[in-house]
Design brief:
The complex is a heterodimer of chains A (211) and B (249).
Chain A (H helix, E strand, L loop, with lengths): L9 H20 L6 H14 L3 E4 L2 E4 L3 H8 L3 H16 L7 H25 L4 H30 L4 H32 L1 H9 L1 H4 L2
Antiparallel strand pairs in A: 1-2
Chain B lengths: L17 H17 L3 H18 L3 H25 L4 E5 L2 E4 H26 L3 H10 L4 H30 L11 H28 L16 H22 L1
Antiparallel strand pairs in B: 1-2
Helix pairs in contact in B: 1-4, 1-8, 2-4, 2-8, 3-4, 6-7
Classes of the chains: A mainly alpha (211), B mainly alpha (249).
């Protein structure tokens, strides 16, 4: 699900870092020091959930939790994604070091889109947790397809030699999108019952009031 | 699994001032990511290999780290040979095996492994606090640094919690993570994990604030530039320039 080291042209690597720096600066403006534990918890969750694999047919897919990050954290999810990806790369060599910037953009943009779409729904469906969870699940599934599309696009423009392989891997992500969507739906259902303030947190905390 | 478990070894790489190490290795990592021609690739591979040997990091540890990228390349090679295009080695009806796929896979392997080896040298040869202090020196935002530090700690917390939850579930007879049928139990575990760690993190943060945490990490680590640091950095930067020169030629 990540672009590994050695695949991209240096122009794309540099562009990825520049875009990630822009997104990070935007996210940093929305964050107060008290938000750090919440962001760190989600960054660590992003890291750990990628270790959970599901056997689907002959292949296996792992969770990404990007949708959930967007829903719970909003714009600052970029920071949690950046740190989560950094530790995935340095501790499990999952992803890449030189591609950390572009991978942050690939995961961060869909998370922001989910936030943008989920925020009005969360206000509208405050008393309809089922509808809200369903919308969250669908959006989470779409984040995977968006990320896979972005990977395909970037690799296609970076050079011809990896287009075939990127296509093979991107199409395999249809199944992941389904799994991620279903799991996010169930997780949101539970979270809205047990700890709704986690989902609605960004409406009252500094994360929201500053943004 | 700790990043800096071998940070206390003694070697020229370990004794290198972390700030100077960053100045030397970060550009070299990007040079490794940029090279395409065989001489440059070979030079990058040799430099990164030499760095790991000089660092005296246990071979078993390095191999363990490289296992992931290595498996990835093993999987990639046949797919690249079938999809890369170019000169055909074998053709059978719709399927063709391309020679260039092998070269692309070799290039990918050298680049990925060189980058990873250099990164191991950068982070595994200094304590994490030292590396973070160096990043602070390069004006990385303090919120981002705190976030890195907290995330690192919570990863271990999560892994411990996940281990406990999986054991408890296994003892109750659940078969976890074995397909979509066990989805509900997996979701329960994930939600419990998320909520427990979330609540625990808030308690830990409150305790830290009460003890006077203000967002900076006071460490005993003090940087002092020595002639050998400048020499090592100059040597590595010259090698980076040499690799770029070989690439441009």
């Amino acid at each position: 699900m990540h672009i590994p080291d050695g695949v991209l042209d240096i122009k794309f690597i540099a562009g990825g870092f520049a875009a990630a720096a822009g997104l990070t600066t935007l996210a940093l403006k929305k964050v107060k020091r008290d938000d750090i534990p919440r962001l760190a918890v989600m960054g660590a969750f992003f890291f750990v959930s990628s270790l959970i694999h599901f056997k689907v047919g002959i292949t296996s897919v792992h969770l990404t939790s990007i949708g959930l990050m967007g829903v719970i954290l909003g714009i600052p999810s970029i920071l949690a994604i950046l740190t989560g990806l950094f530790f995935q790369a340095v501790m499990f060599q999952h992803g890449g070091i030189s591609t950390l910037g572009i991978n942050t953009v690939i995961f961060g943009l869909p998370a922001l889109l989910v936030y943008g779409a989920f925020l009005p729904l969360a206000k509208k469906w405050k008393n309809r947790p089922f509808c809200l969870s369903l919308a969250g699940g669908i959006l989470a599934g779409l984040t995977i397809l968006t990320a896979a599309g972005l990977i395909l696009l970037i690799i296609r423009f970076s050079g011809d030699e990896f287009t075939g392989i990127a296509f093979v891997f991107s199409t395999a992500h249809g199944m992941l999108a389904l799994v991620e969507g279903v799991i996010t739906f169930f997780m949101l259902r539970r979270l809205l019952k047990i700890k709704p303030e986690m989902i609605y947190a960004y409406k009252t905390s500094p994360l929201e009031s500053s943004g | 699994m700790e990043l800096d478990q071998y940070a206390r070894l003694r070697s020229p790489i370990h004794s290198w001032d972390a700030r100077w190490k960053f100045i030397a290795l970060v550009p070299l990592i990007f040079v490794c990511a940029a090279v395409k021609q065989a001489p440059g690739l070979l030079c990058a591979a040799l430099v990164s290999l030499a760095m790991v040997i000089i660092s005296r990091l246990p071979i078993r540890h390095v191999l363990k780290i490289l296992k992931g990228p290595f498996y990835f390349i093993i999987i990639m090679t046949p797919v690249l040979m079938l999809t890369s295009g170019g000169e055909r080695l074998v053709s059978w009806e719709m399927i063709s095996v391309y020679r260039s796929g092998l070269f692309i896979a070799a290039r990918l392997a050298i680049k990925a492994l060189s980058i990873m080896l250099l990164f191991i040298c950068l982070f595994a040869t200094a304590r994490l606090q030292e590396s973070m202090k160096a990043m602070e020196f390069f004006k990385l935002p303090s919120i981002l640094l705190s976030l890195l530090f907290f995330t690192y700690r919570y990863i271990f917390l999560y892994l411990e919690e996940l281990g406990k939850l999986l054991t408890a579930a296994r003892l109750r007879g659940y078969t976890l993570l074995r397909g979509l049928k066990s989805l509900q139990s997996t979701v329960s575990i994930l939600v419990t994990l998320l909520i427990r760690s979330y609540e625990q993190s808030e308690r830990v943060y409150a305790a830290m604030r009460l003890r006077g945490y203000t967002g900076t990490f006071p460490t005993l680590c003090r940087f002092k530039t020595q002639a050998s640091d400048v020499l090592k950095t100059s040597l590595l930067l010259s090698l980076s320039v040499l690799i770029v020169y070989m690439e441009v030629l």
